Amino acid sequence: MITGEIAEKAKIYIIERLCKDGGFCFYRLEEPNASDTYFAVLTLRHLGIDFRDDRTIAFLKNMQRMDGSYSSIYSAYYSIMALKLMGEKPEHDCKNFLRRNLRVYDPNNMPAGLQSIFRQTLYALELCREMGISIDKRKKEKIADFVFSFKKPDQGFGRERSTLMETFHAVSILEHLDYSCNDSLEFLKNCENRIFGFVNIPGTYPSFLEYIYAGLELSDRFLYPPRYMNAVKDFIVMCQNKNGGFSRSPGGLANLEYTYYAVKSLHLIEKI
After folding, report:
1. Other C-beta atoms lying within 10 Å of the C-beta of residue 12
2. What three-state secondary structure class fits 131?
3. How far, rounded to the nearest angstrom, does the alpha carbon of residue 26 sit from its chain's CA centroid?
4. What is the pLDDT of residues 106-126, one digit of tens each?
5. Would you call 189 helix, strand, or coil by DSSP?
6. Maximum Cα–Cα distance for the chain, whole Å?
7. Helix (H) or strand (E) holding 232
């Protein structure tokens, strides 16, 4: 659990973004969404606050349709996982929806600019585990084959080339499927940078907070102490704005997702 001035400022930033309808919105208008709500509740948990509000629970449950489906796997993930943090479950049975969405996604049909081609599959897989949905061996093998098809000679994963974010998601998926991928540690080491701590692609710059988070998550899983931990911590601290939230890079606009990456990263630093 993170304590001190950084934590107190972050708590205030998050709580101030609670909307009247119960959800959260990082730009402080009455326009709550599932993503902001999930990251807000989760970050407060890492800051030692077991947030629970009936309005928030109702807001999240209303994300689900009567037939148990959601507008997207993202909406389902943020809603269901946030409800779990508050000791609640979806109003309607969502297992059929999740089974339909546990699949490989054609990268050619994904929107341009996605940081990871694996995120949708990872979210669906985590939700199936959360809801107690068994996955048959054939589907597990199909998903694993899809992920391994994007493994590069440098032991990283990526669509065009290996990236730290896609490697983090790929390793997470393979762990869920009981596949070992410890050789990806070599790619993680290549992503270390003495100025930023980690970068998304070896030899590039600058870096952003989600790459620091991905690097620390992988370091924790591989039981690897990063070489430039001071640079990592300095970068995170510089991303905190005067309002207490964290931005993607120093001087940027803070939001709830990046605030989670920062708080969880500081927790991982202490753990590692």
Report:
1. 13
2. coil
3. 17
4. 787 776 666 799 999 999 999
5. helix
6. 51
7. helix 229-238
Picking from 169, 160, 270, 173, the residue whose alpha carbon sits closest to that of residue 225 is 270
For residue 54, which amino acid is it?
Answer: D
- How far apart CA 213 and CA 210 sit, in angstroms, is 5
Regarding beta strands 254-255 and 197-198, do their DSSP bridges make them parallel or antiparallel, or are they unpaired? unpaired
Residue 1 has pLDDT above 80, yes or no: no
Q: Is the omega angle on the peptide bond into residue 225 within 30 degrees of 0, that is, cis?
A: no
Q: What burial letters (b/e) apply to 113-134, b meaning 16+ CB within 10 Å?
A: eebbbbbbbbbbbbbbeebebe
The C-alpha atoms of residue 146 and residue 15 are separated, in whole angstroms, by 40
Q: What is the pLDDT of residue 113?
A: 62
Residue 192 pairs in a beta bridge with 198
Nearest of 54, 49, 19, 50 to residue 37 by alpha carbon: 19
Q: What angle do CA 210, 212, 214 make, to 5 degrees?
A: 70
In terms of C-beta density within 10 A (0-12 exposed, 13-18 middle, 19 or more buried), how is residue 178 classed? exposed
CA–CA gap between residue 140 and residue 129 (Å, rounded): 13
- In this structure, how many other beta carbons lie within 10 angstroms of the beta carbon of residue 222? 15
Asked if 122 and 169 count as a contact pair (C-beta separation under 8 A), the reply is: yes
Question: DSSP letter at 247?
Answer: E
